[in-house]
Amino acid sequence: MNGVGEARRRASEAQGAAIGTRQHVTVLLPVALAADPPWPAGPLPFAVGARVADAAGRRGLFTPAAARALYDRRWHLRTARTEGPLGLDGMELLRTPTARNTQQALAVMHFTVAGGTPMLPLLRSVSHRRQAGQPDPLTGAMAPAALLDGVADTAVPAAPFALSRPYTVAFLTPGADLGALALRDAETGEVGAAADEFLRSLASRSVPDDIPLGPESVPEARAEVRRISADWSALVLRQGAAFLGHRADTGAGDFYDWAEYNARTVYLDALLLGTVQRHHIDELTDDLSAVFEGPGLARRVAALEQRIALFRSTYWREHLSAHGPANDLLLAFQDKHRLPERFEQILGEAADYARLAQTQESQQIAGALGVLTVLGLPLGTALSILQVLGDSHPWHLALALTASFAATAAALTTRYGRLVVSSLRGGARRR
Questions:
Q1: Which of 1, 21, 29, 247 could form a disulfide with 166 if both were Cys (CB 3.0 to 4.6 A apart)?
Q2: What is the pTM of this model?
């Protein structure tokens, strides 16, 4: 094994054996919610000191639109269940209905990893890494299907781009023994590359041996890390996010009480909103791609425009509050999933399709007016002549009608007549 491979192996072993002072994992997964659960309303409340992060306490930190999306249709259940290395602290359900799936919701499960248990191997097992070497901890008594039995359907929804594995949000604070794997350098005060690499492993649920990162990619990867403060950092990736402390955790009463409080409430809510946005954008993108399948183009485009407007007013936010890391986390999630670019593309496509539908409607109206002209002009001329002549003989009237119909048929064989008929046929076929 060459030097690079050996260094990567040692880093993987060190990360896989690392044990934090505080270790929490929040699991997000899509579910179907046929009825409101018999749980208390609002998010799962966490407290530090006299401050409680319930719905009322969190609403003031967000814009009104974001608060409505996050808290108006949300329920929680506090529990204390342990199975192996995981302890379940509580569960939440957030309704996120779409036009295609009115029962869609997000399940949020808050776990604490038992002391003395390395956290990263558990995350790798959740991700079903082939080299994980241990079973998925979200099975048996901790399986979402068992935990939400009778409350929500955890079957993978038939939605576009649905998550193949749950989204995880990890929180770990270090003890003094983790050294450069998490702590700032004692002399320079800088966060070392090993700490950022460990943070990436927690967010990606992998070790360096699973997904080797090329040396040329390291600066870009480190630039994605968000320094929340001197004491801790965050990283948001496509399949997970992570928070990692950079000084030793001294236990209860430490600043990390507040870090844990924020990571499991406000910052989690920012990622929840990004997940809801991604679900809606996935569905809108899929439905736009099928807009020409079937009749009723104008009607289908109008319905999509209404859905886009509703999504934009209800869920689409790029700023949650006037300031703070929650905005940065939401923007990082949106950037990882290219949500702003995809939404701009949706708006552009919808505008193009609306113009096309309007053009086809105009052509159909013009064609209908042309038909009225072709049919009405000969008939009107014949009847006017009979009226001027004062002729009311039935046979003469029948002869005039026959002549007008013949003139109409002849007019429809001309280039103008064929254009009118073609416009009507084309409009009807597309609609």
A1: 29
A2: 0.82
Cα(42)–Cα(418) distance, integer angstroms: 64
pLDDT tens, per residue, the chain with 431 residues: 567 678 788 888 889 899 999 999 999 999 999 999 999 999 999 999 888 888 888 888 888 888 888 999 999 999 989 998 999 999 999 999 888 888 999 999 999 999 899 999 999 999 888 776 788 899 999 999 999 999 999 887 666 655 667 999 999 999 999 999 999 988 888 999 999 999 999 999 998 888 787 788 888 888 999 999 999 999 999 989 999 999 999 988 899 999 999 999 999 999 999 999 998 999 888 888 877 777 777 778 888 888 888 888 888 877 776 558 888 999 999 999 999 999 999 888 888 777 776 666 555 555 555 555 655 555 566 556 655 556 565 655 566 567 666 666 665 666 655 655 665 555 444 44
